[in-house]
Design brief:
Distance between the termini of chain B: 11 Å
Order of helices and strands of chain A: EHEHEEEEHHEHEEEHEEH
Shape of chain A: globular
Radius of gyration of chain B: 21 Å
Structural class of chain B: alpha+beta
Largest sheet of chain A: 4 strands, parallel
Structural class of chain A: alpha/beta
Number of domains of chain B: 3
CATH architecture of the largest domain in chain B: 3-Layer(aba) Sandwich
Radius of gyration of chain A: 19 Å
Strand content of chain A: 25-35%
Strand order of the largest sheet of chain A: 2-1-6-7
CATH class of the largest domain in chain B: Alpha Beta
Helix content of chain B: 25-40%
Number of domains of chain A: 2
CATH topology of the largest domain in chain B: Rossmann fold
Order of helices and strands of chain B: EHEEEEEHEHHEHEEHEEEHEHEEHH
Shape of chain B: globular
Mean pLDDT of chain B: 94
Oligomer: heterodimer
Strand order of the largest sheet of chain B: 14-13-12-15-16
Strand content of chain B: 25-35%
Low-confidence stretches of chain A: none
Largest interface: A-B, 51 and 53 residues
Chain lengths: 247, 311
């Protein structure tokens, strides 16, 4: 069994699900955050026999971890439903418990793309300051970054690109690059993209670049990329990766 | 130069500062409670991390700090902010200061005890347990479920069972008893973690760099941290020496998790099996140090001084 885990609103994941289904990846199930929030029964075990999962969904579908061969994991966070139903005083605790639970059971599945991390369920959502350092180490020119006590904490997750510039999205999947709006990516830029994905420990990484006097400059990276930008090539790559074949 | 961040009167920070002072090391303390007198500017250009930290009116270039020890309390709960509304400028200054300092600590070319990403593995105990297990430690048989029948079957199989939080939010480990079984239906709303009780001797192992400090804890309590409440008797602590192999495995696990300092909770069974429960990235080592005389703060201070002088 192959899984696509996603939020209800994730059109990219739904597009990938349809494309993968049409390409013959079977059996393939799409499971949304609403499906997970309404699950009738959870059973997640850890011990001498390894990690196990069994979840029964409200529509009677049952997912057994032992039967899962690959997962396109697009869940950014655990569903809020249980948290919202909790008493006000318990909400912070309930939220932490659900986040911890989801991190564990997804980490226990075979071949997740991407693996969950404590910094994001579908891969690490790094602060732009961390991307600025990593991208420079990967060989990219990077716009200067400044932050101070005067800044709002939430301001560090936006693109570094100057306003109005045209962005190109490159998607790296396990050492292969896809996308870049149809124009061929210079070999050296593709190599930097692959290096950045590798350094960040992310199987599937979307990288936004823009053209400047410095060449292709880094703007932002995300483990939750616009899959549609990867086109048919990315679907072929995902097929191989989910089947555990070299991409 | 070494930077210590937290509240200086808090015991772990105080002990490290005393060690550094005794060794005549150069260090600066950022006292969170003085946030109003502090400012920070971070700049990243071409991958180089620079900036300035004004602490109590004195400027310190960020690049001079080669070792950092973080033991921060939740800045939203600082007493200086009592009664301040959410949008108060003082609160915004405090939040912006802490946020910038933590972002700097995450990318600083320095020894940081500990950065946020490795520390975050502790937000999910079963997630961290999967890493621990891959590192060759036994982990307790664990069930997280929303199904009461599964809990009853788990208890029938394992006998003594405890339940505890899944996340890093502290909870007191409790034995699963008759009164709990009567309210098991409540777990249908939220998956809950149950573990087979492991009998044996509790060991807390602190790793600071390559230094290992092991403390054995004797207590009849299910959770020795709350021994007095649970049994009426405080836990008894004593220094012990680990085998070289086990000590090395603890150092290796700490490195695998990307930590410079860890507090590892182990239990050694009568059959000499070693179970690992969790790895704490911000251990309150002073409880163990003051109970046994082990020089854990000395090991941390040594790690900071080595890093500070090695570049």
């Amino acid at each position: 069994m192959y899984l696509v885990l996603c939020h209800d609103y994730d059109e990219c994941a739904r597009w990938a699900y349809r494309q993968l289904l049409a390409a013959g990846l079977a059996p393939l199930e799409i499971i949304t955050s609403s499906d997970l929030a309404a699950a009738c029964r959870w059973d997640h075990r850890l011990g001498q026999d390894g990690v196990q999962l069994e979840v029964e969904l409200a529509d009677r579908r049952v997912v057994r971890g032992s039967e899962v061969r690959g997962v396109l994991n697009r869940l950014m966070e655990a569903p809020r439903d249980i948290v919202d139903r909790a008493e006000t005083a318990d909400r912070e605790y309930a939220g932490a418990e659900m986040a911890a639970f989801y991190l564990s059971w997804i980490a226990g599945l075979r071949n997740p793309i991407n693996s969950p991390t404590p910094m994001g369920l579908c891969g690490a959502f790094r602060h732009v300051s961390a991307w600025a350092v990593l991208a420079a180490q990967a060989g990219f020119a990077v716009p200067g970054y400044r932050q101070s006590h005067r800044d709002r904490p939430a301001s560090g997750y936006a693109s570094m690109a100057p306003a109005g510039v045209q962005l190109s999205t490159v998607i790296v999947l396990r050492g292969q690059t896809y996308g870049s709006s149809g124009s061929p990516l210079p070999h050296e830029v593709a190599r930097r993209c692959r290096r950045l994905a590798h350094m960040s420990g992310t199987d599937l990484l979307g990288i936004d670049l823009f053209d400047s006097e410095e060449g292709w400059e880094f703007a932002y990276a995300t483990p939750w990329p616009n899959l549609i930008a990867g086109g048919a090539g990315l679907i072929d790559g995902l097929m191989q990766a989910l089947r555990g074949e070299p991409t | 130069m070494i930077l210590l961040c937290g509240i200086p009167s808090e015991t772990p920070l105080r002990l490290i500062a005393e060690r550094l002072q005794a060794a005549r090391a150069r260090f600066v303390v950022f006292n969170q409670r003085h946030f109003a007198d502090c400012q920070i500017e971070l700049e990243i250009s071409g991958g180089a991390v620079r900036g300035n930290f004004r602490i109590d009116g004195r400027d310190h270039p960020l690049e001079q700090f080669r070792a950092v020890y973080l033991r921060l309390m939740d800045h939203r709960c600082l007493p200086e902010l009592d009664g301040q509304p959410e949008d108060a400028p003082m609160r915004q200054h405090c939040a912006g200061l802490h946020e910038t300092m933590l972002r700097w600590a995450d990318v600083a070319p320095a020894c940081v005890v500990n950065r946020s990403a490795p520390s975050a593995t502790n937000i999910s105990k079963p997630y961290q347990a999967q890493i621990i297990r891959r590192h060759g430690f036994l982990v307790p048989e664990t069930l997280i479920t929303s199904h009461p029948e599964a809990v009853r079957a788990f208890q029938a199989r394992h006998g003594r069972v405890v339940y505890k939080s899944i996340s890093a939010i502290r909870s007191i480990v409790q034995p699963l008893e008759e009164a709990d079984l009567a309210r098991l239906e409540r777990i249908r709303w939220c998956p809950t973690q149950f573990q087979a009780y492991v009998d044996g001797t509790d060991l807390r192992v602190h790793v600071a760099g390559d230094q290992v400090y092991a403390t054995a804890v004797s207590s009849a309590a299910t959770d020795y941290r709350y021994a007095l409440q649970q049994t009426g008797q405080p836990a008894q602590l004593r220094e012990v020496e680990l085998s070289a192999e086990l000590a090395e495995r603890c150092v290796g696990l700490t490195r695998t998790l990307g930590m410079e300092l860890s507090g590892i909770d182990l239990k050694v069974t009568p059959e000499d099996e070693v179970y690992c429960f969790e790895v704490n990235p911000t251990p309150a080592f002073s409880y163990y140090e003051l109970s046994t005389g082990q020089a854990i703060s000395g090991g941390i201070a040594r790690r900071l001084m080595d890093a500070s002088s090695s570049r």
